[in-house]
Each structure stands twice: as C-alpha cells, then as structure tokens.
Amino acid sequence: MKALSIVIHTHNFCVTTNTDFAKACVQKFTDRLIHRPFQQGPQQKPKLFASVRADMKEFRFVIGVLGSFKKYIDDLSFIDGYDMSFAGVPSCKKTTYELVENSEYRDYQIPVRDFVLSPISADYAYSRLITMPTGTGKTKTALMTAALIGNKIGVVVLAKYVEKWVADIQETFKIDPKRILVVVGAKYLKGLLFLASQDKLDDYDAIVISMQTLAPYYDTYEAYGDTFDDLGFDVRPADLFTACGIGTVIIDESHEHIHLVHRVMSYMHVLMTIALSATFQSDDMFITRIHKAMFPHEIRINSVKMRKYIHLSAVAYNFRNFNKNKIRTSSWGSTSYSHVEFEKAILKDGNYLNNYLRMLSSTIRTGYADDYKKGDKCLVFASRIEMVNKIVKNLEKLFPQFKVSSYVKDDDYHVLKESDIIVSTLGSAGTAVDIKGLTCVLLSVAINSSVSNLQALGRLREIVGRIVRFYYFYCEQIPKHVEYHYNKVELFRDRVLRFNEYFSDVLI
After folding, report:
1. Please, which pLDDT band fits residue 362 given cuts at 50, 70 and 90?
2. pLDDT tens digits, residue range 131-144?
C-alpha cells in the first residue's frame, strides 16, 4: 500500500493518507492554506482553505492547488511513492427547461454565453466565473445558459438569497413551483439525501440549497469520518450533487463568503459550475491567491463594460465639539477602525444622534424626496441594527408620505418591493438584491473594502430619463474616514458619470 493516494475530481482532489508520516506531511502543506487576518477578532478568526477529517485520513483541496501539492510531495521523495487517479466523469440527469416568453440574450450577454459553452482544455475545464456589473442580467444569463447545457440545475447560495433565486428561476423558466426543491436547514437536507439515495428526485427540475445548510454537513463528516454513515446521513458530501442528478451548479455572489464557497467546491464533482459575481476582487493578497486557485483567469469572463450613469456625491461633515475619547472608532484591544463602535458612540449621546439623523434626512430630502416620482425608492446603509431602527423612526416622522421600512436579518424580501425608503445594513442589502426603481443610495458607513463599496454602488441601476444618486459620508476629524474617502475617490473615479464633493451644513 502506498503512503498516500490522490483522486482527482472535477473541482478538487482528495488525498487519502495511509501512514502517520504521510498525515504529518500533508498536514504541514495545509498550514500554507490558513488565512490569518492581520487584525483578529470574533469575526476575523483564522480560516483553513482546505477540508481535513479529524482522523487526518482524508484531505481535500480545490483543483487549483494540485500543481503545488504534487511539487511539494515530489520534493519529499516518498519512499513508498503515491497513487494518482481520476474519479471519472460524473453522471447527471438531463433536463429540458422552457424559457418564458421574450427571454432572449442581450447583445453583450452572447459572448458570456459562448464562453461558458466553449470547451477549455485544462484542469479547470468544469468551472466558469462570470463577472458582470450589477444590473446587466448575470442571473438570467446564467440560468438561460444552464438551460442550454441541458443538465439538471442546482443553485448554491447564501441563505438570505434563496427566496430571490426561487423567484428568478420562476421568472426565467416556465416551471411549476412544486418542481423547485428548496433545501434550508438540517431537516430538509436529510430529506434531500434520503430522496437522492433512493433516486426519487425526478419530480424536481431545480434544487436550491443554502451554503449555511451545507457547512454543518461538511463539519459532521469531517468530525466522524468513517462512522458518518451511522448518523443517519444517506449520502456523503463528495457524492451529493451526483446523487441528486445535478449536472450544472450555479453559485451566486461567489466573492461574498469565499470560505463557504471554497468548502462547497472542495466536495464538488459535477460537469459544470457557473460562479457569478459583480465584484470578484479583494484587498487581501491571500484571498486573491485563493481566488486564483479556485477561478484562474482563463476561466473568467468580464467582457461586459460598465455603463456610467451614477451621480456620486461625497459628503464631508464635522462634530461641533469633537472628543476622540468620547467618539470611539475601534473596539477594546484593537487598532482597526470599526464603524460599529463609531455608531455606538453616536447612539449614546442624544445631541450627536439628533444631528446625525438630521444630516441624513437632509440628504434624503435633497437627493430623493424633492425629486420624487411615483415608484422611486431610496436605500440607506448603516452598521448597527439599533441605528437602522433610529433612522427608520426619524424618517417616518419627517416623511409621512413615504413607506419607510428596515430590511435586516429575517425581514421579508417583499419589504424591498413594498417600501419607498429602505434602511438596511451592508450585510443584508449590500449585495445580490435588486430594488426596482432605486434612484438614491446613502452609504453612511465608513468602510474601506473595495468589494463592499462597489457592491453598495452597484445597487443602483440605470433608469432612462431619471438621475440616480449615490451619497457617501465621511468625518473630516477622523483620519480613517479621510483615508477611506480618498480610496473611494480612486475606486469610483471611472465608474460614475459625475462626481461632486460638498460639506454638510449640519454640525454633529
């Protein structure tokens, strides 16, 4: 028996170890794949970009790491050597999807379609990454192209986008809602696994699964290993999509939780994955390397040019009596800027809060209310839910003619359709939500993430005959705010139609 064996799958490779020495060697390799944020905290813990069973008999890596792993093992000169094989072409169910009337590709979407359908002779042949600006129809492009491929479709998304994707499928295909299987939660996952093991999924043409449902499924397998089957799971993670008959997997907003996406791909064995993102980039070099390992440039397409239609304004403001000891901008024990802490300080002081709310409402009046036409909507971003609620109550008093609502956590997706002014967080509405008629966005959160800033900007769509406006705010007395402002100027410069900078007449 060889010291270790490598089995190559469509999106990953599995390493099985047979000796303690092999376990130690492979474990040492995984150390290269631990992401350790510079500033660590509850939300920034080290993450391993590999899957490892607790008994260390099995390691899984995305296919892009195969070259470096083979070199690493070859350099060790294993006395017993190792075996390497391909798992074989995965099977799936052929499925016919009928498009709704007037479902046609726009001119700029055709090259995207052709790219997905064109064969690529490489280790990454089974994946494509579609990078399209928000508002250019990447969801519909992916679904219509998946229909052309003709394999059963599976959609893997964050839980908060499941409802949206069910709606998108129904708006693209003539499909009975009963033929869309939604899998959210352990109970429904076990039901899916049972039906898959019995080959009883022919009643479903599309399966939508949340990533958060898959994560503990992987955790359990990695913890229990060979005894996993005794826990009532009818299918192992590596066999999931094949057992479900899925041949094409669509992964939406691939940038948003890259670690979860990576875990899914570490167990994936399917004929085609179509990953979608509007802003597939990172300010973190380690994450950039992970992006490259998962989706190298030869399988990416970003041919769709961004149209410039947004009027952007940077709003500078100051405190009347600025006290840096009172206005905290970082959590205890950390030197990193935290807008959550900044908002917490404002919420503690009645005068600060009233003036802060007055500044935001003044901007809403100028940029939205005074130019309102029926169907127009406004979106406001804050950090803390408490601040979201304060803004909502204030706007309800000032603008009784508008329906003002919060959209956070478990709020219904229909809030976005039924409200005139929506107050939310970047985590809730900063990505993958389409708000029809959105003409004004206020980003009150000082943040430096390129992805988050671009996603916030990307909530706005071009509306013929209407000016769409984006406002972001920064305090001149806080160095990090000023730094983030200059970074935003560079980031947005070539993405907006007009740029304006002015000072708020409200002192906080």
Report:
1. very high
2. 887 778 889 999 99
Q: What is the sign of the dihedral through the CA atoms of 158, 166, 375 and 499?
A: positive
Structure confidence at residue 432 (pLDDT)? 61
Q: How far apart are CA 146 and CA 271, in angstroms?
A: 11
Separation of alpha carbons 12 and 52, rounded Å? 13
Non-local (6+) Cβ contacts of 455 within 8 A are 134, 278, 279, 426, 430, 431
> Any idea which residue has 């706005």 for tokens?
460
What SS3 state is found at 58? strand
Secondary structure class of 183 (helix, strand, coil): strand
What pLDDT is recorded for position 40? 47
| Cα–Cα distance measured from residue 125 to residue 103, given in angstroms and rounded to the nearest whole number | 28
- In three-state secondary structure terms, 498 is strand
Average pLDDT of the segment spanning 452-469: 91
Task: Give per-residue pLDDT as tens, 246-281.
Answer: 999 999 876 668 899 999 999 999 999 999 987 666
DSSP-assigned beta bridge partners for residue 8: 13, 86
Q: Is the pLDDT of residue 63 over 70?
A: yes
3 state SS of 377: strand
Give me 173's structure tokens: 């295909």
Residue 152 corresponds to which tokens in the numbers above?
């059963």
For residues 179 and 43, which has the higher predicted lDDT (pLDDT)? 179
Contact status, residue 278 vs residue 131, Cβ threshold 8 Å:
yes
| Cβ-contact 177, 226 below 8 angstroms | no
Q: Write 478-487 long-range contacts (CB < 8 A, 24+).
A: 478/327, 478/329, 478/342, 478/446, 480/329, 480/337, 480/446, 480/448, 481/446, 483/448, 484/446, 484/447, 484/448, 485/314, 485/316, 487/448
Helix (H, G, I), strand (E, B) or coil at 404: strand
Residue ranges and CATH numbers for the domains of the chain are 4-86 (3.30.70), 107-301 (3.40.50.300), 310-503 (3.40.50.300)
Separation of alpha carbons 448 and 445, rounded Å: 10
Q: Kindly report the three-state secondary structure assignment for every residue of 71-104.
A: HHHHHHCCCCCEEEEECCCCCCCECCCCECCCCC
Locus of tokens 């076990």: 190
Q: How many secondary structure helices (H) and strands (E) does the chain include? A: 17, 21
Classify the phi-psi angles of 232: left when phi > 0, otherwise alpha if psi is within -120 to 50, otherwise beta: left
CA nearest 274: which of 151, 177, 92? Answer: 151
